[in-house]
Amino acid sequence: MYANWIADRQLALSMLRPTQKELEHGLELHRNSFVFDAYGFMPSGGGHNERSEKIIAENGSKHELQAANEEFASCLSYMKDPGMVKLLREAFDYSGVDCIFQNAGVEGNDVENMLKRLSCFTFLTDHQPELFERVVWPDKFEEIRARGHKALCFTTNGVPLPSRFVSAEEALEHIVVFARFGVRMMHLTYNRRNLIGDGCAEKADSGLSDFGRMVIAEMNRVGIIPDVAHSGQRTSLEAALCSQKPVVASHTVAGKLSFHFRGKSDEVIEAIKKTNGYVGICAIPRFLSGSSNICAMMDHIEYVARKFGVDHVAIGTDRSTRLAPVEINGVPALSRRGWENFWPDPGDGGSKVTDEQFRSLAFLNWPLFTVGLVQRGFTDDEIRKIIGGNVMRVIRETAE
Fold first, then answer.
1. Cross-strand partners of 43
2. In angstroms, rounded to a whole number, what is the distance separating the alpha carbons of residues 228 and 244?
3. 3-class DSSP state for residue 258?
4. Domains of the chain, each with CATH number or no CATH
5. Buried/exposed 292-330: b ≥16 CB within 10 Å, e otherwise
6. Which of helix, strand or coil describes residue 128?
7. Spatial CA neighbour of 245 closest among 397, 38, 389, 101
8. Using CA atoms, how far apart are residues 104 and 70, in angstroms rounded to an integer?
9. Does the structure show a pLDDT above 50 at 211?
10. Section 236-243 average pLDDT
């Protein structure tokens, strides 16, 4: 596994081609800074997934299988393996990441399913306190780093809403419940339309609903960041215009540089800037366009930073790394893709992402993102904002 980590780093370095001085300075700056992934997934392990194997053998439902896979991916099973725990810590150290805005809720608004994934990560931070701490209050970040621990800050891929409600106030009650569980950011929509607004895959792009405005007001009140990463352009714009606190697009790209429907227009980014929020640039090759590798990612960061200011850009990789293969005997039955997860044709003519593009943007290459910013001429203070400071600032402003 270490050989893979080193190979991915060497590959990215061959693309960036920093001078020795730039490399050394960037790596030192990364080590000495608080690094906060604005949206991502902690490294996940592998091994023999016996529970999923049993469900497949018994012809269990796709929901049973999904729950079993969620539990396994969230480290609850393989954390019993001391060797895997050691590897997990080494991966975190290799990345130099101190905190991740961890996706701890499923896509959509289903309260029951959101609680399942949230329970996994709540249990994880309780079960492995020598490795992780769940961070809820912004004044705890530096304390956690000083203890040598890693932090997880929870976000959900949707706003929890009951399946039935009479008044809007009744529906909004679940937002404060999830805030008490430690959730500090929520997607207003996923790719499709919901009661709050249109997602980024809706051609109608009809914007924020009246109910959506009430949702944002409640999120402002209880200290949860509205995230428009998967929202449509108009929904994103209207969310920023109506919010009294910072709005973010936690993992996206600059639409001016990319054809992908997940990108944000300059108009939207400007509106997010006016809320004192940020745009998190992701590490997904297909979203980036251009070279679709680590250099393209630097292009997007630089574009937002130069045009809208270094206070309004972050890095939300939307990536993780698997520490070992998952072993499951048998193949589960195929089923139609869920509507919430449906991704339309991005309009790229069927182009394929290469292995090299994907590997250059590996989660464990995080230190090279800092090196790339050094290459682009950003000052140390500016880089500290981009790789973590802006995220912490928004959390503090939202909690006030």
1. none
2. 15
3. coil
4. 2-332+353-399 (3.20.20.140)
5. bbbbbbbbbbbbbbeebebbbbbbbbbbbbebeebebee
6. coil
7. 397
8. 10
9. yes
10. 98
